[in-house]
Amino acid sequence: MQEIVVSVLLAAVIIMAAMVLDIIGRRKKGLTKKQSVMMRRILLTAVILFVLQFISAERFTVLDNYLFPSAGRWLRLACYLADYLIIGYDILKKAAKGIQNRRVFDESFLMTVATVGAMALAIYENGEYLEAIAVMLFYQIGEWFQSYAVGKSRRNISELMDIRPDYANVESDGKLEQVDPDEVEIGSVIVVQPGEKVPIDGIVVEGVSSLNTSALTGESLPREVGVGDEVISGCISMTSVLKIQTTKEFGESTVSKILDLVENASSRKSKSEDFISKFAKVYTPAVCYAALALAFLPPLVRMFFLGMAADWGVWIYRALTFLVISCPCALVISIPLSFFAGIGGASREGVLVKGSNYLEILSKTKCVVFDKTGTMTKGVFEVNAIHHSSIDDEKLIEYAALAESASSHPISKSLQRAYGKEIDRSRVSNIQEISGNGVTATVDGMEIAAGNDKLMKHLNIPYHDCHHVGTIIHMGINGEYAGHIVISDIIKPHAKEAIAALKRAGVGKTIMLTGDAKKVADQVAADLAIDEVYSELLPADKVEKVEALLQTKPPKAKLAFVGDGINDAPVLSRADIGIAMGAMGSDAAIEAADIVLMDDDPLKIAQAIRISRKCLRIVYQNIVFALAVKFACLALGAVGIANMYLAIFADVGVMVLAVLNAIRCLFTDRESTFGKNQANNVGTQK
Amino acid sequence: MKKTYKIEVDCANCANLMEEAARKTAGVESATVNFMTQKMIVEFAEGQEPGTVMQEVLKACKKVESDCEIFL
After folding, report:
1. Does residue A260 carry a catalytic annotation?
2. Per the residue annotation, which of A83, A201, A371, A599 is the catalytic one?
3. Bridge partner list, B71
């Protein structure tokens, strides 16, 4: 029965190996040289073994009559030995080197002892050589698969994060020249052609184009840029040629910084990784001694105490099986791979995680503290509402913008933005600024007054008070009240949804800290359904507040702080985990943070927490699964139920499954649309 | 001083062993091996010549994992 199974397995291996060599081998970048050589060896060994399977030991004894006694036995040994060496010579060599360098307990050593032992038993009994070779064969297949899968996923993830520009175009003597981005000096003008990456941060001096920022932010909507706009490196210009004056050196540009972050990210090891490497250090020698004990103790006990036959062969075989099962590779490989894939998956979503350890902490986050301005709100003032207007809202904005056209105050800027068209100064005359109150001007022959309540009182225009929070601009036209415009810092479109998503993701408490006035802060907190709010805080107060919160929370629950401004940097580094808003946030904040949200969307926080949870779930699954299977097989092996084939499964099978499971971290499932719709509905009902 | 070297190593456990070997080498302040990006980041102790220290690191790494490579 077992022979049929092995024959079928071997046939499968032969077909698989041939296919792998044929299909993947032909592709560009398909197999490395090492891999294709190894695959050929696997194929050759499997074919020889397959053929030898059909020639029984008796068939060989026929030779004895023609040559010398037991020639058949020797020839059979030679055939199998040759096959064994084809598949296993490098392992034997490695094991020998290991012993030479006094590092005995590694995988090659385990495999060598196990297979040489099995070979010796077979030679002694003129029995089944098959097992030793098959074990080595399957081990090599497992190793091959590991090298292929790991290499491939490593490449895939790296490609995903590959935003490194290879060159910059510099114009000299009317010709474009490709130079190393490192050599471009600040202030030079570089040319970015359609389809090319912007290599260095700068300001557009010529051209209009749409930028694809998805590599940086995960945002699929293109961004339109024109002359005077700032562009960050790593974006891809899609439609037309841009000329950009650089404002930073390549090394200081966004793209370099991000690459630096991501590349060093997996160097910061998580607790689970540390645990596993410590575990492996104890585990391998422990198993070796256990195997040694298994080989010698029971037979000795049987011989001297029970008076039975020693059964050396049986116990040595069991010990060898034990050794094969014990390889720790499944654990050691799958955990960093899971984290690496998790970090890769997150960066595809526009969330940069600076290290595996942060991914781990993030998954335990139970309390999220927000800064207000720039985090939950846009940090720019915009026309938020128009009330009681006696004419068209657009007209009202138009008059306000025209009247304020001479001013460079942020308020008048936001009015001009809201108006959205070119301002025709010739329509405005007689502008009078009444400091601290507003302006009066003549627009299209009408007397326009735009300002606060003091201005209205001063001009004796009756006005309506506004219950909204923000800056109120009352408008008077020809001495009549024409309504008012509310200008305030507006809440980011996804902010409310983000809080709801965080709650769904299991974050118990949301807190907002702000330096802003209490009235404004309370309003925003109520709008977003944030649990607690602390307002009118100085930067130092924020640190104190976060420290107080850190003291009161349970030790296992982690606290995350989300912020953007320069004054947030100390808080970011003080919290268990600091999350910075990337594109708009200050460099200092990004440096101090552990996680950077590239597109400033607070909804990404919940997304990042979900990714981290998934990643950690997979890590634990792998640890538990691998250890459970190992220990179960070790127990079975010790009592003699497991044979070498099961042992090989326990080693490479588990490893392959763990690697495949780890790859799942790369696929970040977005929250179901159902959940999102629900959140929207709740929003509209209120 | 900190320097990053490209390495080639096949298994994750071997990468851990290399890291440990590099850390124990004289003249190395700290070392991190990143298996996923196949990189070794070495911080040298004050006044050490990276070139000569790295030769020692390479030797130590070859001892624990004969298949590994550090591109100096």
Report:
1. no
2. A371
3. B6
Q: Which residues of B touch A333 (CB under 8 A)?
A: 11-13
Among A94, A158, A329, select the one facing B66 at the smallest CB separation.
Answer: A94
Alpha-carbon distances, residue A56 vs A52, A61, A130, A645 (angstroms): 8, 9, 12, 21
Phi and psi torsions of A367, nearest 5°? -140, 125
User: Tokens at residue B31, please?
Assistant: 């070392």
Phi-psi region of A26 (alpha: psi -120 to 50; beta: other; left: phi over 0): alpha
B35 Cβ contact partners less than 8 Å away, ≥ 6 residues apart? A336, B9, B12, B15
Q: What residue type is assigned to position B63 of the chain?
A: K
The two three-digit tokens of residue A569, written as one number: 């940097």
H-state helical runs in A310-404: 312-325, 329-348, 356-363, 393-403
**What's the complex ipTM?**
0.70
Running along chain A, 686 residues long, what does each successive block of 10 average in pLDDT? 74 83 71 80 87 75 72 81 88 83 70 81 75 83 78 68 75 79 84 85 87 70 82 82 87 75 67 78 81 84 76 78 74 78 81 85 89 77 78 85 78 80 82 81 87 84 78 85 83 86 88 82 86 83 87 86 76 86 66 81 87 90 87 81 74 80 74 40 37
Smallest CA-to-CA distance from A347 within A495, A472, A162, A167 is with A162
From residue A469, give the alpha-carbon distance in Å to each of A144, A385, A436, A453, A520: 65, 11, 19, 14, 6
Phi, psi of A631 (to 5 degrees): -65, -35
